[in-house]
Amino acid sequence: MSTDPPPIYVVSGGTGASAEQLVHTVLVQFPDSQVPVVVLAPVRQKEQIEDVVALAATSGGIIVHTLVDAGLREDLIRFSLEKHVVSIDLMGDLLTCLCRVLGQEPMGRPGLYRQLHQAYFERVSAIEFTMAHDDGMNAEDWSLAEIMLVGVSRVGKTPLSVYLSVLGWKVANVPVILGLPVPAGLFQLDPRRVIGLDIGGNRLLIHRQRRLSRIGVREPSDYIVPAKIEEELGSARGVFQQGGFSVIDVTDKPIEASANEVIELITQKLKSESRK
């Protein structure tokens, strides 16, 4: 017989994120038990409840639920008792108590918290996307980016990407490296969403010198040779031109100003195309 622990089925009328987080919070108290957690959501029909209980009964699993729909919650509790399945109600007792204390009936609308806080969740999603697509990573998802930033090393792609993501934009960025081919996927993107970042050679030299100083590099390097820097910038400008990308000069600009310029370019181009 298998010695694996039975799964925990998280059942929710919404996304199940809150219940899943609580389950994982509890499971860390049992570090030697690798309990599988399966999220089943959204559950909105009685037939789904029957399927969930049958699955738990077959696997010997436990059900943890946060159903705000009173009818579905009662169905799940009843079916669980009939099938001898352990079910833990994270929502019912609190709803019942609040009904009594507040003298009101709950709305019973699943996913309402997420709907009311949608802007927050969208911002978190944008930040997560941006961090996962920094410096050319996960190129297969570039088409999902609302903004793609392109430029040489130390031009400021990452801090600008993060700043834009906090404003709710999903941003990816990719470096242009002298002597290496530009990823072909870059030229397959909607050019209206791709922004090239340009900078004065002297300012870029200062940024790079500071970078090397911070990490303790003392040896001479092409990375800070002015002629090489100008060659890199020229190569990057060639990429911008080849792709038909908009370009902003970030020399001596605060990040807020650069971000505003990027957003204005993106929105203007998308609006102008939509009118055609």
Account of the 3D structure:
The chain has 276 residues and is α/β, with parallel strands linked by helices. It has two domains: 8-114, Rossmann fold, CATH 3.40.50.2300; 118-275, Rossmann fold, CATH 3.40.50. The chain is 48% helix and 13% strand. The chain has ten helices and eight strands. It has a four-stranded parallel β-sheet with strand order 2-1-3-4, sandwiched between helices. A four-stranded parallel β-sheet has the order 6-5-7-8. Helix 6 (118-132) packs antiparallel against helix 7 and helix 7 (157-166) crosses helix 10. The protein is elongated. The N and C termini lie far apart (67 Å). The model has no long low-confidence stretch (mean pLDDT 88).
Q: What are its keywords?
A:
elongated, alpha/beta, Rossmann fold, single chain, 276 residues, four-stranded parallel β-sheet
The secondary-structure element order is EHEHEHEHHHEHEEHHEH
Helix count?
Answer: 10
**Rg from alpha-carbon coordinates:** 26 Å
What is the CA–CA distance across the termini? 67 Å
Number of domains: 2
CATH topology name of the largest domain, in short, is Rossmann fold
Tell me the helix content: 40-55%
CATH C-level class of the largest domain:
Alpha Beta
What is the CATH architecture descriptor of the largest domain? 3-Layer(aba) Sandwich
Strand order of the largest sheet: 2-1-3-4
Question: Would you count the extended β strands for me?
Answer: 8
**Structural class of the helix and strand makeup?**
alpha/beta
Tell me, rounded to a whole number, the average pLDDT. Answer: 88
Unreliable stretches (pLDDT < 50, length at least 5) are none
Identify the overall geometry.
elongated
Q: Main β-sheet: number of strands, strand sense, barrel status?
A: 4 strands, parallel
Relative strand content: 5-15%
